[in-house]
Amino acid sequence: MRILIVAATALEVQPLAQVLNQFSQIKVDLFIAGVGMTQFAYALGKKLATNSYDLLINVGIAGSLKKDIPLGSIFQVGHDELPELGAQDDEQFIRIDELGFGKSIFSAQVPASIAQLLQEIPSVNALTVNTVHGHEGTIEKLQKRFPTAVLESMEGAAFFLVASQENIPAIQIRGVSNYVEKRNRATWNIPLAIENANDCVIRLLANVKSQ
Ligand SMILES: O=C(O)c1cccc(C(=O)CC[C@H]2O[C@@H](n3cnc4c(=O)[nH]cnc43)[C@H](O)[C@@H]2O)c1
């Protein structure tokens, strides 16, 4: 089995980078695609044009829209939505789907071979944004529009989009580094989120069968 681990930044997969050659039963490559969905989608698309994989895993940190979730918690993302893609119509927002120009919700595609291994990782819905939310009023409106969304990232939906266009199974594993709130970097715990997300993926890779 050939697996590509994709991250926005090298920091987010530093622990994984140190153990890559330990997985003798599978071939694992690491790829840094950059921060933000535009750069990320371009880089990943280009990588997949000349390399083939059986599974893509997006590993990274994320903000939590729910304050009762402890920092460092790990989730797999089931559905990932682009809340900004569409048109304003005065007080209303028209999604790109309704405009007839494409899709705004993308999903994980879990291969049967790892479905059981993934069962222990809670699955949530996420939003992918160009601007990290940091304004209380805007966040309140976002939470009303997307009451089931738990995580916010800057690449997740773009990752699923590229994977589905290339017809490659794809999962997204994110560690909560911060709450989506008025910007306060002092409260973020990036090292904990990275450590837990990487531990989770290392455990997963150790148990994937070769095939
Ligand atoms: O310091 C800032 O205000 C700031 C603004 C944008 C991004 C960052 C990062 O360090 C994030 C890099 C990476 O992490 C993901 N991430 C983490 N928390 C969030 C969030 O609350 N909302 C959206 N994305 C988040 C994101 O996927 C980036 O790739 C710092």
TrEMBL record:
GO terms for cellular component: cytosol. It comes from the Bacteria. This is Futalosine hydrolase. Residues 31-205 form the Nucleoside phosphorylase domain. Its EC number is 3.2.2.26. Keywords: Glycosidase, Hydrolase, Menaquinone biosynthesis. It catalyses: futalosine + H2O = dehypoxanthine futalosine + hypoxanthine. NCBIfam families: fut_nucase. It holds the Pfam family PNP_UDP_1. One of its GO terms (molecular function) is methylthioadenosine nucleosidase activity. It is an enzyme of class 3 (hydrolase). Catalyzes the hydrolysis of futalosine (FL) to dehypoxanthine futalosine (DHFL) and hypoxanthine, a step in the biosynthesis of menaquinone (MK, vitamin K2).
